[in-house]
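Researcher: Go.
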Amino acid sequence: MDLTAIYRNSPDVYSLADFVPHVVDKKYLDNLGVTVDVAPATLAGLEAGSRSFIARLAAKTVIPVPRLHLAEIDEGGELEVHNYTSRCPVLTYEVSPVLGCQVGCLYCLITDGVHEQPLTVYTNYCRLLERVLEKTREEDHYFYYSAKTEAFQEPTLQTGIAHDILRTFIAHYHKFPNSRARLFIASKAGVRHLEYRHGGDSIIELFTRLKGKMQFNTSLSIMPAELRSLIEPYAAPIEERMRAVRLCQEKGILANSALVQPILPSYLTEERMRDFFALLRENNIINFKPEFLTVCMEILAWIGQLLGRIDPGMERDLYNFYLAPENSDHRKQRGRTAPNRDWSLDTIRSFQNMGRDYGVSTSICFWVRESLKISEDMIPIINENGFQCLGYQRGLFQTAPETVGES
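Model: Structure:
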């Protein structure tokens, strides 16, 4: 099946006539002006990653090549619980009908930026989902669509699996109007994704039939726009994501919280933070969950060089945030390094304080809370606007049962 791109950013990494990738070794870092001492193992990762980047640019394997494989999943199996740390306080099941991702983010938490495998779509996934929904309907919980890939990308939209997942929830609520399941969607979708039609329905029309039972959280990032177009090759531009948010709001769908990841430390200034909060306020977003770029050293060498093409000073500062030996244990899931702890905590405080000026609350996931020793006095588990962790709106469970349209 051919996958027609709904968005494709330009320029891409193959069309940068003025970009020459280098091996990021000690000499390279010294010449750039990096001031932190770098451990040999860290240097080895940077060198290996930059050599891989050079080879993949030459072979044109950085950006996903659309290849789709159809398969079936065990309908008697279970859905994975979304729980990276084993201590997440919200019971959340992952909805993952696709293996792989067409968006192609170089910072991807799941693939470490490697998108060379064919995408696999499970054609019978909704039967598994239907069974788990019915079995768990009496307990308060979320279904997170989609934790490990983009919910609304070409494979899910053009095969109709995204539409069918929403229809499965609609049918479930029609059959069990008092079900305690709630649907949490985090997505980089633009308005074209939400207006994509399959089987007579658009995504936004199906959302409308799920009002009161679901929330849509847009996924944003804070980085130079030129870098974003390079490292999110098939993602909707930010303005298109904001149009999608406004469309949801116009239809009465809960869409007033944002996942903000990744945040690029070396790009942040007070002025850019204020511009970011002004964007949220302009689009009626009242909560955000911040998360800084977390990367393995191999991918840091890719992103750093692309950033250096825009501003060598930002590349230098990026390495200073991540490479110090005392920061080597500041890790997220799958061993990915986060930026300097003291800076991270101070910046979250700044985000929180500045956000109040714009009427925007902050929610924090358990890993960040634990890693940075963020107390409930600083940021409550459930904040003043009712959001928790990734931005789950706990008020959804207090919503009176509504009639949901038939599928």
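Model: The chain has a mean pLDDT of 93.
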